[in-house]
Amino acid sequence: MGVSEDSNENTSTPPGGATPPGDRDRLARLLGGPELAWLVDRVRRRMARDEPLTGPVTLSDPTPAQREAAERLLGRAPGAGRSLRIRLDAVDAVLRRSGAGPDGLAAAVTALTGPVTRLAEVREQEENAWREAYAPLDTLVRTARPELAAWADRLRRDGLVRRLARPQAATKLLGDTAEALRRLPADPAVSMPAFAADAFGDAHALDDGTPLATLVLSGVRALTGFPDGSGAEWRREAWASAGLLKDALSCTVLTLGLRGTPALDWAADAGEPAVLTLRQLTHLPPRTAPTAVHVCENPAVLATVADTLGPACPPLVCLQGQPSAAALTLLRHLHTHGATLLYHGDFDWGGLRIATTLLHRVPWRPWRYTAADYRAAATATPLAPPLTGTPATAPWDHELCPALTELGVRIEEETVLDDLLADLAS
Questions:
Q1: Class for domain 252-425, per CATH?
Q2: Concatenated DSSP letters for 19-35?
Q3: Domain definitions of the chain by residue range
Q4: Quick check: pTM over 0.70?
Q5: Could you read off the pLDDT of 213-250 as tens digits, one per residue?
């Protein structure tokens, strides 16, 4: 951190008042020339760090003029060699004896170059400013989003905010971040420009690459459990997990055997999958809801069911990975209108995270997705691939996570496809 040469606050000042003009002229002749600027700079640095002005300071490869200036100051040659070495306590003694600096070296340097700002006070002021900047997040966690406590702590530690803004700008940045996260998830889903305009008065406030978008997206992922990734498609889906939509057409959900609109009725009669956009679901949702809706994670399951059961398939919804805003909108609609949701996913850590994310947004019951089902499938699959990744929890069955840890294999939905088909056929 640089040392300010012209600050008038929080400074070290020489005792004994101002230096008389005559003494200042003598002091400038002794210590103020360009050849000794390096020495004055070293003294200022020590003063800024509250270090004692004693012991030696060394200049590598001094010029002849710098050696001559040191000799004039000390009244003797400071020594030969490739470096120039001067003891600060010797300089202090010279200044006091000569009368040019009767109050010593610190007062002399201050008289020549101005007050020295103490770095400890600068750091304290800066830390106070950062504490003030983070206050909106503290309030958010305390009053509205306790589930973001770990994320807020991590944000303090990893330095992201300090890389994005200085304290004064960070105060507004974190205030806006807290305001966005207080409003999320958006239900019903809303376009990002409309959300940004309503929250911040600027439709482009959450455009990709802005500091605000970076922080809010980080908080969104902490809220929804959306997995790590990169790229425009990943960002679009991450935003959609909190109900913020870059557009209402590219966000879709895959269904089979679902009825309630002319298009869905036609697809169900034909035994063909239907792709519903978020726009369709917000403008023309299904008019009716079945008693039960099965939900799977992988589109290969739905494709095989369509090939096998065709028009006889009961209502089936496929998440295609993390639940999109379209999937959440559809499932909430069906649940609100009386449908029971029955969910199955991959038996691995990623699958458990997807299921947990969905459970936080809409209630469901497990469909062959318990610890007992996992153990049976693992026993029947001797060549199952090993389980990898970071462990997750399973709130619907507290025995499932220990079972995965114990057996250490992953069971994908396709592995138990015959059982799922049998359920749907019955």
A1: alpha beta
A2: PPHHHHHHHHHHH-SGG
A3: 11-117, 130-245, 252-425
A4: no
A5: 999 999 999 888 887 888 887 888 888 888 888 776 77
